[in-house]
Amino acid sequence: MRDTRESRLLLVLLVAIAFALITVDIRGGERSPLDGARHAAASAFGPVEEGVASAVDPVGNAIAAVRDSGERHTRISELERENTALKQRLGSDDRNRGRVRDLDAMLKTAGAGQYGIKGAQVVAIGAAQGFSWTVTIDCGANDGIKRDMTVLNGDGLVGRVTTVGPSTATVLLASDPKFTVGTRMEKTGEIGFANGQGDRSLRVELLNGKAAVREGDRLVTFGSSKDKPFVPGVPVGEVSRVEPAGGGLTRTLQVRPFVGFSKLDVVGVVVQAPRTDPRDTVLPPKPETPKPAPTVTVTVTPSASAKPRD
């Protein structure tokens, strides 16, 4: 069909008629005058539509299946992410519960020794400032932390602060070979010096070579001048082995530290020393040794008048 003036007028006329019919149909509602024509058209073209639908539906169903599959895959991924997040939250809750226990134990230790502490969390473990056994904590000069402050947790002595930044600090652990702290034996008061040995026990040299020591005896910090770097009375460890005396001027002990240096989390920096030496009061009470049940021996003596039977 050529694009002439007559054809354009015909197209405009058909569009106008179409809009008029649509308007009449909408205003008529269920009683539309075009309802009969619509039914007639449906009867005439219905079989054709069904045939086309039967031919097209498999393709449409396949596309829908692919789309639904993608939606299911997306939902599965979402569920997997939600499951992972839930596990992380549960793990976090378990970790938080552990931290609450650690914090509670640390507060009890601080209360027993009358130590003023600043709580902190270990945020890094590794070599720093040339030391091989150190941790980094999340408080520093902005929190009042200074060099040569004692660090402890609920179990006992952790170490001392060596380097301080604005918001973090480095702690030299008591297990480091360069670490030295003065110690005092529980009850007897024998004085010595403890040195770290890496992942092994602490090595303690008692100044009295004839000191009476046995396995299970416990030690606390002796304390430093002006409480720097160590405050007195912090639990250090328990004697695991007593080296032979050998006639020396000192007595060597192997001491199992109370603190597990490989699993540090919540610690406390002592920012205020106690007014008086707490001595042994920070040490937990020793478990009572069960007493053996008394035994009674009964001896039965046969009567002299008893006669043997035939």
UniProtKB/TrEMBL annotation:
Give the signal sequence positions.
none
> Entry's InterPro entries?
Cell/Rod_1, Cell/Rod_MreC_2, MreC, MreC_beta-barrel_core
What does the UniProt record say this protein does?
Involved in formation and maintenance of cell shape.
State the organism of origin: Streptomyces netropsis (Streptoverticillium netropsis)
List all membrane-crossing ranges: none
Q: Does the keyword Transmembrane apply?
A: no
Matches recorded under Pfam families: MreC (PF04085)
Regions of compositional bias (Low complexity) in chain numbering: 294-310
Protein name per Swiss-Prot or TrEMBL: Cell shape-determining protein MreC
Q: What domain of life is recorded for the organism?
A: Bacteria
- Offer one example of a GO biological process linked to this entry: regulation of cell shape
Similarity section = Belongs to the MreC family.
Q: Which NCBIfam families match?
A: PRK13922.11-5
Comp. bias regions, Pro residues: 284-293
- Region of interest: Disordered: 275-310
- Key word Transcription present in the record? no
Could you list this entry's UniProt keywords, alphabetically sorted. Answer: Cell shape
